[in-house]
Amino acid sequence: MNPANYLYLSALLFTIGAAGVLIRRNAIVVFMCVELMLNACNLAFVTFSRLHGNLDGQVIAFFTMVVAAAEVVVGLAIIVSIFRSRHSASVDDANLMKL
Amino acid sequence: MSASSVHSLWTTAAPVADKFPTPHIEYAQLSPVLIVLGAAALGVLVEAFLPRRSRYTAQVALAALGLAAAFAAIVALADKGYGTTKAHIAAMGAVAVDGPALFLQGTILLVGFVAIFTFAERRLDPRAHGNQVDSFAAQGSAVPGSDQEKAAVRAGFTSTEVFPLLMFAVGGMLIFPAANDLLTLFVALEVFSLPLYILCALARRNRLMSQEAAVKYFLLGAFSSAFLLFGIALLYGYAGTVSYSGISSVIDGTAPMNPALADTTGNDALLLIGLAMVAMGLLFKVGAVPFHMWTPDVYQGAPTPVTGFMASATKVAAFGALLRLLYVVLPGMRWDWRPVMWGVAILTMLAGAVIAVTQTDVKRLLAYSSIAHAGFILAGVIATTPDGISSVLFYLAAYSFVTLGAFAVVTLVRDAGGEATHLSRWAGLGRRSPLVAAVFAVFLLAFAGIPLTSGFAGKFAVFTAAAQGGAMPLVIVGVISSAIAAFFYIRVIVLMFFSEPKPDGPTVAVPSLMTSTAIAVGVAVTLVLGLAPQYFLDLADKAGIFVR
Fold first, then answer.
1. What membrane topology was assigned to this protein in its record (chain B) (predicted)?
2. Which residues contact B32 (CB under 8 A, 6 or more apart)?
């Protein structure tokens, strides 16, 4: 199979993730969409690694996974803390500061 | 002039590495980063094993010692010539040790060192149940206003975790401008961003606003770093490597070709879209329009000491990374990126200055002013001349201390609810506390770029470099937006000195030696860089050569 198809898939996943970040209102779902974007990047890295015949891309995919895991730790902590004080995880409710 | 001869204006060639080199880490050259990250890890252990009452002293001492030792290591490296003649690439091509890297790392370390003083200040907030408290929440996990929080305050808890978090952030920022491949760039970005997200959420007063700032910063920051990562993936796809020198030689057409590379380099879309997405990620971090939306909210909501640190050090690190990317990797593409950067710089300067005029909150005002300053610095970046590099380095050093000092002054003006940041509350401050108002006026004049302050020297250097680099229209826009910006800085000064103080106005808290030192350092650097900038300009000039 032509490896370029994986690139199309990765671009598609990235776009779905980016669109989700922009249109979904729940902070947890927004965050999941960001994770989808990171995983789309991983797919692109691995595919390019195959195309070029070197291992850099596969190694980078591991680094991305570790970074994504660290981001989950920090992100969920922040989202849970704001949820507990407001009883809402909607990003529209976070509007104390305007202009 | 050919692409490679232009390239040699601001880069020197590094010795070519062997094809399969044995892993080799130059610990001595990497020591500043290692010291800071080591101190951060020790700080986590202190948090885990020391009794609560002795943590504060231990953490402050550890952080200050770590940063001072790392700065000494930077000075030693620069003294040995690693900034000039011995500049090279360390850690298997991952980290560059050269003039711009050492200069910016030194700046970040000094900024971090001064920031520790503002973090450790414990005399501004009134005592809670007899315990001295700082600007940070008693317990980050406790719900604001809950019984758990009240119990934590009564027990005298403080979040001493902020010091290791600060150190991790500084560690990431040290790597960021020195990163010499795109993977290191991404990892460094996350290493300094994640602690900053947490620090933003930890304000003692206005917890809800602080948590909101953290959520906004985190979601937008993660979104932008996903873009950066996809950009890295595309550049890797184009060049088959993530190392800066590798990508630049593929762009210049000097890299050895193979069939796979011939296939991907035939596809300019990979390069152009990848470049755009990586630039997007970096412009988000510097707060350039149109990626600036997070700046005012995060600056306003975060605890003020954190805002000061974030506003100055993040900008230094992110501009360092942007400079290296544009000057080392992409000079062959400068006809593609310069027009875009022109647009971004013009938008940033004008939008920052114009929107700042309408602001009524001191912290938001400073946030928009930092956006405008990002535009001025971008004008220097666009110059693509050796002078462009050194003027940006100088501007960053000058700007970061002014910002740090200005936010430290903001922590002093207080009323019953904590800091009084609404501008109307600052009316007549100069009558009531002339010294504090005068110091803040010095910082505002430096932001405005009035002669005899560091702001003037910095702006002059940047605009001169931009004009010589053929960006005269940018300079004109820059001067116009400086004039607009001067209007609202002067308005604040007039408000402080020439209006009647309100009877229920805020009081100026008397700080301990810590914050006083931080503000004094800010004033001293502002005046020294303004009155006698030549030594530092020469230093920046000497440091202005990237290693390739």
1. Multi-pass membrane protein
2. B70, B71, B73, B74, B77, B105, B109, B174
> Could you tell me if B428 and B364 are in contact, meaning their C-beta atoms sit under 8 angstroms apart?
no
Helices B362-382 and B454-468 pack at an angle, to 10 degrees, of 30
pLDDT band at B164 (very low <50, low <70, confident <90, very high): very high
Could you tell me the pTM of the whole model?
A: 0.94
Tell me how far CA of residue B411 lies from CA of B405, B431, B442, in angstroms. Answer: 10, 19, 16
B183 touches chain A (CB under 8 A): yes
| Cα B542 from Cα B477, distance rounded (Å) | 29
Domain that holds residue B34: 25-542
3-class DSSP assignment, residue A11: helix
- Structure confidence at residue B21 (pLDDT): 64
What's the complex ipTM? 0.97
Contact B236 A56 (CB under 8 A): yes
Task: Identify whether B20 is part of a domain.
Answer: no
Residue B361 DSSP label = B
The answer to the question of residue B47 being in a domain is yes
A contact residues 5-34, partner B, Cβ 8 Å cutoff: 7, 10, 14, 17-18, 21, 27, 30-31, 34
Question: What contacts B132, CB < 8 A, 6 or more positions away?
Answer: B122, B123
Give whichever of A12-16, B51-55, B132-136, B247-251 has the largest mean pLDDT: A12-16
Chain A residues within an 8 Å CB radius of B19 = none
A75 min Cα distance to partner chain B (Å) = 7
Asked whether the beta carbons of B115 and B109 are under 8 A apart, the reply is: no
Query: Is residue B537 predicted with pLDDT exceeding 80?
Result: yes
